[in-house]
From TrEMBL:
It holds the Pfam family Ribonuc_L-PSP. Belongs to the RutC family. Coiled coil: none annotated. This is Endoribonuclease L-PSP. It comes from the Bacteria.
Amino acid sequence: MIQRFETGPRMSEMTVHNGVAYLAGQIPEDTSQDITGQTRQVLEAIDALLAQAGSDKTKILRAEIFLADIGEFAGMNKAWEEWVPQGHTPARATVQARLADAAWKVEIVVTAAV
């Protein structure tokens, strides 16, 4: 069985199958904020989605982080390190990418156990 959450005409924000939650790329709502603020927004959205699936950030298996400007790596990491629980850090990749909206500084995709 596949569960779909916040399903729209183009995509679902999350799907769950065989005890694994797959999140769509999460992006900031308030693009006026700096990289640290945008990252915090994205991490809050991830927390909310994982809660819907009965999971949380301690169960994240993998994170893929896309930055519009790799020069903002330190600012993103500031928010990430405040958020991620020590001892539960997931496998992670961070790359620079042209994001779909030029105002987005960060997009994060996670896969987590449920």
